[in-house]
Structure formats: structure tokens, C-alpha cells
Amino acid sequence: MIDDGQHRTVPGRLARLAHDRQDQCHARLAGMALAFFGLGFLVLPWWALAIVPLLLGLAALLSGERPPLPFPRRQDRWVMAVLLCYGLSWVIAGPWHDEGLRGLKEAAPVWLALLALVALSRLRVSSAWLWGGVAAGSLATGGWAVWQRLVENASRVNGHEPLHAILFGNLGLLAGLICLAGLCWAFGREQRRRWMLLLAVGGLAGLMTSALSGSRGGWVGLPLALWVLYRGYGPRLAPRWRLAGFGLLVLLVAGLYVTPQTGVERRVDNAVASLEEYLAGDPEMTSVSARVEMWQGAMRLIAERPLVGWGARGYRQAMRDRGAAGLQHPALGRFWHAHNDLLDAWAKRGLPGLLTLLALYLVPLWLFLGGIRSAARERRALAMAGILLPVAFLGFGLTYSFLAYPAGGLVYGLLLAILWGLYRQVPVTGQGRRSGGDAAKGEADP
Fold this sequence. Notes:
The chain is mainly α and 446 residues long. The protein folds into 2 domains: 23-59 and 69-258 and 339-439, no CATH class; 272-334, no CATH class. Helices cover 68% and strands 0% of the residues. Helix 1 packs parallel to helix 5 (128-150) and helix 9 packs antiparallel against helix 15. The chain is globular and about 65 Å long. The chain starts with 8 loop residues before the first helix and ends in a 23-residue tail after the last helix. The chain crosses the membrane at residues 33-58, 78-97, 103-121, 128-147, 167-188, 195-212, 218-234, 241-259, 350-369, 381-398, 404-423.
């Protein structure tokens, strides 16, 4: 029999078929990890999210491929550095203040995000998994919130511990904002009507969750978050659509305010009344006056130890001592954080804690900023979501210490790693003048 070489193509085809199936397997596994994060970070216990980097790591191992893009690049190193240094500020503060390795509890969730980022560098995953997961999770959270309010008659809805009303409501708001950012991506899809409907309803569900939780602190940063969305959408919309969008937003906010079942009107009125009473010198302790006194106490502790801080136990004992000495209300000694992320980090972990927290906020803002003007819809959507993440946490952290909770650190770190891992792989097409991370010298965008 003459070997003409034709039979040699069969093993090659089988090998390619097996390779394609392997690619589909690990890509789907990675996609399910992203969807699991979006679906579960509010409706499941927070520690269940640890499975996300593990699944991504397994998918990366199964791929057996070289990274689709060089890793780590200069921008990747910035993301990795802020996550690593933020965790180190917790770990180092423990022994320094004779608290052992208790800082690992707060550092470990953030460091898990490093595994997710490294794994995503070896994978190509469709961002549809993330948008679909977050939208489904926001809808599930909104439904759960409505059930608690209407069926269980809860005055303020909440999630699994430690996601009490403040954490639950503000993270629900973040999920809704990310859904609204994803509308930019959905507009370019083949089934754009279905995707846009899903994400739009998911965005409304997130706003509803925030309203039903009564978490007023999240509403403080909402104007800045809406400005981010406007910068992403506004320049490309006709004036009539901008006006229509603004009118719809006003109607939505007014509807949430006047609907008795949401409790928004009552919460806003209480906040205004409490502030007026505090300014008038009323000694009664309210949520507003308690926060102001805690901020003042934290700032005085910072002035005493600005470089090294007091540590977690030292901060609480110092606040109790201040109450016993009559320098502030004694009841404030029961609170273990300063109800402000920046003050809490500085008071407990000193200047390194403050600087690493600022870097955790500012570096993502810098890296994603250039993409908000991208002509590529997927890149612009991911950039908006990447900017909304630190903007939202900055707003939340003005009146509450979100990142004092391991759950807050895990959500922030994983979402940053996922958004950056997807963003870095989206090609730049038709982009105008670049800034921030997109303009880093010597770095070519993917």
C-alpha cells in the first residue's frame, strides 16, 4: 500500500478535536467561577466565595497553555502590589501590637484575589459569564430583600452574617451599578434586547435592595457613581436620550422616596432630624452623633500615634478609656471600628495602613480611567465597572468601615481581580487619547 500522507491527517484532526474540547472544558469552568461569584456574593455565606479563585486556578491548570498575553506586565504588577501590600499591612500590624497573626484573617481574603488574577492571566473567558452572574445575583438579592420586607416584616433587610443591613444594602447597590455599567456591553451583543433587559432589571433590583436595607451611607456616594456612568454613556448619547435618562432617574428616586414600604423617606427624615439635633447641642446619642464622636475619637488617637497606630485591640481599649474619662459617650466603647475606612485603617495600622488603603482605591481608578472613553463597548463597560468598584467603596467607607470585615476585603479583591483580568484582554479599537493605566510608558494594551 502506498503511503500518500493522507492518512496522517486523521490523528491530527483527533488531536485538534481533543484540544478544542479541553479548551471548552476549562473555559466553561472558569466562566462558571465568574458566574458563581456574581450570583453568590450576596445570597451565599461570604466564605463560600473562596471557591472562586480555586475554580479559576483549576481551570488554569487544565488549560496547559501559555498565557494568551504576557504576564505580569507593568500594570498587572501594580494590581498585584496593592493587593499584596494591603494584606501585609494587616499581617505586620499584628505582631507589632502584640496581637499575633490575627491580621491573617483580614489579609487572606484579599490575597486570594492574587490567585484569581494569576489564573485569569492564563485563560480567555467571556465577560458574559460575569455580567450574567451579577445580574442574576442582583435579581436574587432583590427578591430576597422584598421577601424579608413584605413577608417577614423586617424593618431593614440583611443577608447572611456578617452582612447586616449596611453591608448587605451597599453591596446590593454595587451589584446594581455594575449591571448598569454592563448595559454598554449588552448593546453590542446579538441578543442585545434580552441582555439589556436582564441587566436593566438587575440594576433596578440593586437599587431596590439598597432602599429596603435603609443603608443611608451608600446613598452619599451615589451621585459620584452616577457621574461615572454618565461619563461612560453621556458623550455618546443624543441630548434627548440624556434628558430622558435624567428624567427616568428622577422618577425612580422619587418613587423610592415616597413609597412607604421602602422606608427611604423615614430614614432620610431621621438622618436630617438627628443632624439638626446634634448641631443644636442635643446630648441624645443618635446614629449621626455617634459617628461624629467616633470620628473625633479616632482622629485624636491618630494624633497620638500617627505612624504605627494602636492595633485592633489597642484601638478598642483606647476608645473605652476615652469613654471612662468622660471625653466621649461611654457607649461608643462597644464599637470595634471607627465607622470610616480611612480613619479605621490609620488608627489601627498607622500610616502604612492608610497608604496601602489609599493605593487600593487609587490604583484601580488610574488603571481603568483610560478605558472609559474606549470605542470598544466591552472595554468601556469593564472600565466603568472597574472605576465604580473603588468609587463605591470610597463612598461606603465614609460612614462605615467596610474593609474592616474580611467579607468586604474578599468581595473587593475578587471583583478587582476579575474585572482587571477581563479588561486586560479586551483589544483597544478606535480609542482616543489615553490616560492613566492605558498610557503607561512601555506598555502596549492587549
